[in-house]
């Protein structure tokens, strides 16, 4: 199967590596010159759960690839999705399945401008990944990758992708309600990521603070209200907070990715998390002051650090 990885950074390299290792015809797509050069010269090095593996991989800039793909995994940051879709429109055919595992909200609407809904498969993943140097990445965890077809008629196509992910060691799982999983993951990112980035500390320190309950209730309630009004998804606030606290117990020493984005002078995905909730809530006449404030503070922090927002 011809698979393109559109955005071959941290997660994209990890997925591309395991898919190719397990027999798929994988092409990495990215526009980062040093990364492309390093992979062409030395192969792609991915350390998977502590074991370093090197593999020759095809890597190109999107405009250099001419043939239509069977499957495309999009793996940009949320704010890069639109421009990536523009640069890969020519390799999306009538039958090309596009799989989106990005964090954040609203990606289905972005994808629908470029891909027929019958070919869009949405999902989430809890694999974690990072870039150590150009051409050198790591992938940690066991997954899963949960996904579901956006068109109810297309379950067979999603099941086929689940099978490929399973066979590649990526722990694919078919989800009967990926929209719920996406909202719940957004709650994780909209609380842990945003608060650790703002307070410049680890998850365990944020969750040990005396104001954690009111912060979690404020943010999660706004996500839950919008999830129900906009998408008919019922997120129980108390249950979600318990889930977040249990997760914090397991990964407490960790600095989440938004903290790492600021530390590495990269823009955050806040506009697709708390920012998306604040914006959409306005459209529905709802109040989301917590999410608005968190978004404003993260943007202020980006500005203070001199990080330019790509979508302003
Ligand atoms: P990343 O920044 O490491 O990789 C994105 C890559 O896309 C970069 O190499 C960039 O050069 C490339 N890119 C962006 N726009 C492009 C364009 N128009 N043309 C060509 N290349 C382009 O990001 P990541 O950490 O792999 O995360 C991808 C998504 O997955 C994000 O939404 C993130 O929140 C989510 N996610 C990440 C992790 C993780 O541990 N890294 C875990 C779960 C979910």
In brief:
The chain has helices spanning 10-21, 33-42, 81-88, 107-112, 155-167, 178-199, 203-207, 212-231, 237-251, 257-263, 274-283, 289-305; strands at residues 2-6, 25-29, 44-48, 51-55, 58-60, 71-74, 97-100, 120-125, 128-133, 136-140, 145-149, 172-174. The protein has 312 residues and is of the alpha/beta class.
Record field, number of beta strands: 12
- In N-to-C order, the SSE pattern is EHEHEEEEHEHEEEEHEHHHHHHH
Report helical residue fraction.
40-55%
Which CATH top level class of the largest domain fits? Alpha Beta
For the largest beta-sheet, the strand count, sense and barrel status come to: 8 strands, mixed
Q: Which class best fits the helix and strand makeup?
A: alpha/beta
**Strand numbers in spatial order across the main sheet:** 5-2-1-6-7-8-11-12
Low-pLDDT sequence parts: none
Straight-line distance between termini: 38 Å
In the CATH hierarchy, the architecture of the largest domain is 3-Layer(aba) Sandwich
Mean pLDDT, as a whole number?
Answer: 96
Bound molecules: nicotinamide-adenine-dinucleotide
If you compute it from the alpha carbons, what radius of gyration comes out, rounded to the nearest whole angstrom?
19 Å
- Hey, roughly how much beta strand do the residues contain? 15-25%
The figure for the number of domains is 2
Q: Per the principal axes of the C-alpha atoms, what is the gross shape?
A: globular
CATH homology group of the largest domain: NAD(P)-binding Rossmann-like Domain
**How many helices does DSSP assign?**
12
């Amino acid at each position: 199967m011809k698979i393109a990885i559109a955005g071959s950074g941290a997660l994209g390299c990890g997925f591309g590596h395991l898919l190719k290792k397990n027999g798929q015809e994988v092409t990495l797509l990215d526009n980062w010159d040093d990364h492309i050069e390093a992979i062409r010269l030395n192969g792609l090095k991915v350390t998977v759960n502590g074991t370093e593996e090197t593999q020759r991989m095809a890597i190109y800039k999107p405009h250099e690839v001419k043939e239509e793909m069977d499957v495309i995994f999009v793996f940009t940051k949320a704010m890069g999705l639109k421009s990536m879709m523009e640069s890969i429109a020519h390799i999306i055919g009538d039958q090309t399945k596009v799989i989106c595992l990005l964090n954040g909200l609203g990606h289905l609407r972005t994808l629908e401008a470029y891909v027929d809904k019958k070919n869009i498969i949405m999902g989430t993943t809890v694999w974690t990944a990072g870039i150590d140097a150009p051409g050198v990445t790591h992938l940690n965890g066991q997954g899963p990758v949960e996904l579901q077809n956006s068109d109810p008629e297309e379950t067979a196509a999603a099941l086929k992708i689940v099978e490929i992910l399973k066979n590649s060691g990526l722990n694919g799982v078919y989800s009967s309600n990926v929209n719920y999983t996406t909202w719940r993951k957004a709650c994780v990112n909209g609380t842990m990521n945003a608060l650790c980035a703002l307070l410049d500390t680890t998850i365990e320190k944020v969750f040990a603070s005396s104001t954690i309950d009111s912060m979690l209730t404020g943010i999660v309630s706004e996500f839950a209200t919008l999830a129900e009004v906009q998408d008919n998804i019922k997120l129980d606030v108390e249950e979600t907070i318990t889930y977040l606290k249990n997760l914090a117990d397991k990964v407490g020493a960790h600095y989440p990715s938004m903290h790492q984005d600021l530390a590495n002078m990269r823009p955050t995905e806040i506009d697709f998390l708390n920012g998306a909730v604040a914006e959409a809530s306005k459209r529905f006449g709802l109040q989301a002051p917590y999410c608005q404030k968190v978004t404003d503070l993260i943007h202020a922090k980006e500005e203070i650090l001199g990080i330019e927002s790509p979508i302003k």
